[in-house]
Specification:
heterodimer, A: mainly alpha, two-stranded antiparallel ribbon, 22 helices, B: alpha/beta, 6-stranded parallel sheet, 22 strands, 33% helix
């Protein structure tokens, strides 16, 4: 491990974070609230620390896979630690672990909160909260790669470690440009959403903040009852559609811009994603009609919003779905695990992995019938490497193992089973709300410090797809000579 | 520039490495996932797995708006088809590697019919390089500039040379005033020397000037002033064949030692004036019985690096003046440099250099003014050729009035057929080709060489 290189990369990341706080600071200046000092102090601390880290000049600048992975997981940890400063200094969240939880939840685009009451918080702090969703959606390090002038070839490891999905690739030959293109698409879509929300009649500040939360599929809202507070059907439809769009693989948008519209509907993952969304909406609508809402339209309105919100791991809500019948709730919990597409801003296991796991299952059955058959798993007409396939099965196992371990630790608090189970599912899947205590109208504040730390771990592990985080817990990785 | 490289072998990888570092968008296509994995890990390029002949794969790589396609797979025929397809699909320029000597004679027809812009034959290029070095006594390598009007030769200063201990200003007075010593490497560090710089033993010096002047300089300072007359070549592959042809034309006598009997028959048919010997060139007795000690030069070009290096060392020990070895793997180049072999050549590096020079020429046509660029030990210093034009800010200003940045030397000015080794009073005029030696910096604009506020 090249500790100097990792530290100096961390320095660049923290410097970028200081810049990222500027918009939030400007918001609090505009609204004339006193949280502006919280931002100024945080920015100064970040600049000082990043300066100290960047004094260290790496003696060897070749970045190997292990360094890239370490940079990513350490950056996410430290960015969360320093991102909590504005909450602490402004006094919005007095407890350090709560502030850390809230920041992790923001950057990992989970949107789970410990706040009982958000409407009274200063505007700048709330903006920062949603802005962490936006930045975390596409990736903190991706942003660093996009803005740094000199991006070396070996930084591809950083991109691989941070981007969601089993097989992240480049859009264009240069990494720097790839990341820039992704951020431009991301920014453009966010702007379109802001404009549409304004047209729907939402206030400017709320439009921007909600659009930021939607784009990162984070789900931090500025109202206690989330999007339901506006009771604006047009705005709900816009958010539903945009949540779905941000859960789609950004590579497809790039193909579309290049004029290859067909690829959208030929893409196996997108078809699966669309299929699951449509089927879930249909089933929940049928289940709800008559039981919870009187009319089909009312059921459709809430079911489509909720399905889109949960599968893209956003976590907005328009209604308290904790009160829905258990069939509908079960579908939503399953959607938490599935998540949206690879290469999007969403969390979860990702549709592509589910598709490939199902194909693997079919292959196993096929092998029983024809023991000597040779069967390559294909997707979009291309055969998938055996390495990628075994990576996916191991990922699935690791995901479930961490999930189980976390449930076990969290249950020490003595809360009910459903709350614990969904709380872990919602944090590891980066969704936000669960059921029971942590339901759409509830929050995580009543859990113990240990549980909150476990949730924070789950969120980062879920966002970075487990392995970069597990690396930090491997003793061999920390040794100078690793054999 | 958008460049597609087909074939991620030795040459393909080296090309991708160099071209991607020079800010080109490089896409590599190869059938085999293993080399691609290495490329994606270490280089800033895009990799596509598939057959480079297939239209679908080429379209995926973006051949439509590619500026250049380089086909460097192992098969000549495949390279030709790749280029042909790519040209039809819209690639601006194509380069194919064609190495079979059978095609070599029909190259111009092939080039025309297939629309190829450049054909590169690594063995042929390598043989030419060896031939060039052989024609210069004492030079380690020779690099042409300004379409061959100027040459840059690398020399190693050894004990006994008249240069040892001499100051640079005395060199022009005592040995030759028509050349210029542009750079000196001492203990892995590069110096752009001034007049009172003293040359020491074991320095590597770079001499620039008109080819004839450089040749005269080399023969005057060298310990062995005689022209190379007899060359022994170990290994009878394609390089040996091309080299023997080159030597025959240059009036040198060559002796090829080849282990395979059938190949010997082939060679003796192809090269009537060259002595072909059937034997194992790595055996001491064979070398001795063929009078290795009496040879002026020794070239080892078998297929195995270790054999080439060892026989070359043996030849050096036997007192052969000029020893050249071919190696395919350049990984340990710095170590080999210290082993005492005069020159080490690597076909893949030569091929890559040739193509890179072509790419720079293309870029030049697209607005980048750097004509040729030659790297002196890795990245530490470069010799660059710029063309002065209307936009150059300091034309007609005497050089001693120009405030250049540190570590820049105006080495040569080429004005039509005139070669000027510049002095303080000389000026740069529009249309001149100017060769600069630059340390530690990279320039893309000629005007950048002036220190801030230095141009009038």
């Amino acid at each position: 491990m090249n500790i100097r290189l990792i530290l100096s990369s961390l320095g660049s990341v923290l410097c970028t974070e200081a810049v990222l706080m500027i918009p939030a600071m400007l918001v609090s200046v505009i609204y004339g609230q006193d949280d502006v000092y919280a931002f100024i102090i945080s920015i100064l601390i970040l600049i000082a620390v990043s300066f100290l880290l960047r004094i260290l000049k790496p003696d060897q600048s070749q970045m190997y896979a292990r360094d890239g992975f370490a940079v990513v997981s350490l950056s996410w940890f430290f960015v969360s630690v320093f991102g909590a400063l504005p909450y602490l200094i402004s006094g919005a969240i007095p407890s350090p672990i709560d502030a850390f939880f809230e920041t992790v939840s923001g950057f990992t685009t989970t949107g789970a909160t410990i706040l009982k009451e958000v409407e009274s918080l200063p505007k700048g702090i709330l903006f920062w909260r949603s802005f962490t969703n936006w930045v975390g959606g596409m990736g903190v390090l991706a942003l660093v790669l996009a803005v740094l002038p000199s991006v070396k070839a070996s930084t591809v490891h950083i991109l691989v470690a941070e981007s969601p999905g089993p097989n992240p690739g480049k859009l264009v030959p240069k990494i720097g440009q790839t990341v820039k293109i992704l951020y431009i698409i991301y920014l453009a879509m966010t702007l379109i959403q802001v404009i549409l929300l304004l047209i729907s009649g939402m206030p400017l500040y709320d439009s921007i903040v909600n659009a930021l939360s939607t784009a990162g599929t984070g789900g931090f809202a500025v109202k206690n009852t989330s999007i339901g507070a506006y009771n604006n059907v047009f705005a709900e439809v816009i958010i539903t559609v945009f949540m779905f769009l941000f859960g789609t693989n950004f590579t497809l948008y790039f193909q579309m811009i290049r004029g290859n519209v067909k690829s959208f509907f030929r893409n196996a993952e997108f078809r699966f994603y669309l299929g699951i969304v449509v089927i879930s909406i249909a089933l929940i609508t049928i289940d709800l009609t008559g039981k919870v809402f009187g009319s089909v339209w009312e059921s459709l309105r809430h079911s489509s919003f909720q399905v889109s919100s949960i599968i893209t791991t956003t976590g907005f809500s328009t209604t308290d779905f904790d009160l829905w019948p258990s069939f509908s709730k079960s579908i939503l919990v399953l959607l938490m695990f599935i998540g949206a597409s690879a290469g999007s801003t969403a969390g979860g296991i990702k549709c592509i992995r589910i598709v490939l796991l199902m194909k693997l299952m079919r292959r196993e059955v096929h092998k029983i019938i024809h023991p000597r058959s040779v069967y390559t798993v294909k997707i979009d007409g291309k055969s998938v490497d055996e390495d990628v396939l075994s990576g996916i099965t191991v990922f699935f196992y690791a995901f479930i193992t961490i999930f189980a371990a976390a449930v076990l630790i969290v249950s020490l608090d003595g809360k009910d089973m459903v709350s614990n189970f969904t709380a872990v599912a919602t944090t590891i899947g980066n969704v936000g709300p669960g059921l029971g205590i942590v339901g759409p109208m509830g929050n995580f504040s009543s859990y113990s410090v240990l549980s909150k730390a476990v949730f924070s771990f789950c969120m980062i592990a879920g966002r970075l797809e487990i392995f970069p985080v597990l690396l930090l817990f491997t003793p061999m990785f920390w040794k100078k000579v690793n054999i | 520039m958008k460049i597609i490289i087909i074939g991620d072998g030795k040459v393909g990888y080296t090309l991708a490495e160099n071209l991607s570092q020079e800010d080109n968008d490089v896409t590599i296509i190869d059938k085999d996932p293993e080399p691609l994995r290495k490329a994606i890990e270490y280089l800033d390029v895009m990799c596509i797995r598939g057959n480079g002949v297939s239209t679908k794969i080429l379209m995926e790589a973006g051949v439509k708006d590619a500026d250049l396609l380089i086909a460097a797979t192992t098969s000549d025929e495949m390279n030709m088809v790749c280029c042909l397809t790519a040209k039809k699909l819209g690639a601006q320029h194509t380069i194919a590697r064609i190495r079979d000597p059978e095609y070599a004679s029909e190259l111009s027809a092939l080039k025309r019919d297939l629309g190829l812009d450049m054909v590169i034959n690594p063995e042929h290029a390598c043989a030419n390089e060896i031939g060039r070095v052989l024609s210069y006594p004492t030079a380690v390598s020779v690099e042409p500039f300004a379409k061959g009007k100027v040459e840059l030769a690398e020399l190693k200063v050894v004990n006994g040379m008249p240069l040892v201990g001499m100051k640079l200003k005395d060199v022009s007075a005592r040995i030759s005033s028509s050349i210029l010593i542009g750079a000196v490497i001492r203990d892995d560090e590069v110096f752009i020397p001034k007049g009172d710089f003293q040359i020491k033993e074991n320095d590597m010096i770079y001499v620039i000037g008109r080819p004839s002047s450089v040749y005269n300089f080399c023969s005057r300072v060298g310990l062995y002033r005689e022209k190379v007359k007899n060359v022994m070549i170990i290994g009878g592959g394609r390089i040996a064949y091309y080299l023997a042809q080159y030597l025959e034309e240059a009036g040198m006598k060559a002796k090829i030692i080849e282990i395979d009997k059938n190949r010997c028959y082939e060679l003796s048919e192809l090269l009537p004036n060259t002595l072909i010997i059937n034997g194992d060139g790595s055996e001491e007795s064979v070398l001795n019985s063929e009078n290795l000690r009496g040879m002026d030069a020794f070239v080892a070009v078998t297929g195995r690096d270790e054999e080439n290096l060892l026989t070359a060392l043996y030849a050096k020990q036997c007192g052969v003046h000029k020893v050249i070895a071919k190696i395919n793997r350049v990984n340990y180049a710095s170590m080999i440099k210290d082993m005492g072999i005069d020159s080490v050549v690597s076909p893949k590096q030569i091929t890559a250099n040739g193509i890179i020079r072509y790419v720079r020429g293309l870029k030049n046509a697209m607005g980048n003014p750097v004509e040729t660029l030659y790297k002196i030990i890795g990245d530490k210093a470069e010799a660059i050729e710029f063309v002065a034009n209307q936009s150059t800010k300091f034309v007609n200003v005497p050089l001693h009035d120009l405030k250049l940045r540190d570590g820049i030397l105006v080495a040569t000015i080429v004005r039509k057929s005139e070669i000027i080794i510049p002095h303080g009073k000389d000026v740069i005029k529009p249309g001149d080709s100017v060769i600069l030696i630059v340390k530690d910096k990279h320039f893309s604009d000629f005007n950048d060489i002036i220190a801030p506020g230095g141009a009038s």
